[in-house]
Amino acid sequence: MxxxxxxxxxIFDMDGLLIDSEPLWRRAxxxxxxxxxxxxxxxxxxxxxxSRLDEMVAYWHARFPWTGKSQEKIGMEILDQVTALISNEGxxxxxxxxxxxxxxxxxxxxxxxxxxxxxxxxxxxxRLDIKHxxxxxxxxxxxxxxxxxxxxxxxxxxxLGIDPNRCVAFEDSPAGVASAKAAGMSxxxxxxxxxxxKLFQAELVVDSLEELVPLLRNQEL
Length: 221
Prior knowledge:
Blueprint: E1 9-12, H1 22-34, H2 42-45, H3 53-63, H4 71-89, H5 96-105, E2 109-114, H6 118-128, E3 136-139, H7 151-160, E4 167-171, H8 174-182, E5 186-190, E6 204-206, H9 213-217
Parallel strand pairs: 1-2, 1-4, 2-3, 4-5, 5-6
Helix pairs in contact: 1-4, 3-4, 4-6
């Protein structure tokens, strides 16, 4: 076993982990915020990766206060754009189908714990045709705070009826890793970027979910 604990549940983040949505998020954020004068770039967008939508909008408003549109209105415009992009262009990340099919075949307890609003989660599950894999779906929108607060992961574990210490979380952002660790979970971080050094809290860091298929097949994770 890679981890010392006897794991009973597997909880997945969504954006950037299951679906290649981070570029689509950046396109939507840049488009909407440029319209109110915010000089947002791809690199700047990474500063709020893993954050809840309202917290991301508040972050940029604090740095570049704008007038004319409320933060709520800006958030809705970003959500509308990214939902449309995902519905039309969204693609699964490498290894997603194989990992989920394997865990479903093994009758593992699965949950989704995302920072995204519920309507976007539904769009992703429909686009990738993976709704059947997740009997429990949780959005950080329904928590007092978003990631790195552990709320959404604790809620997911509670709905599964499994102690957080018996759960493995799969994440791709530093905020997400911190959230799952704060909930008491073991964490697998999936990242191909140089931010790997910021994911050091995770027990395992891999480039792709594809790397996990043999480990899961052999009950090593």
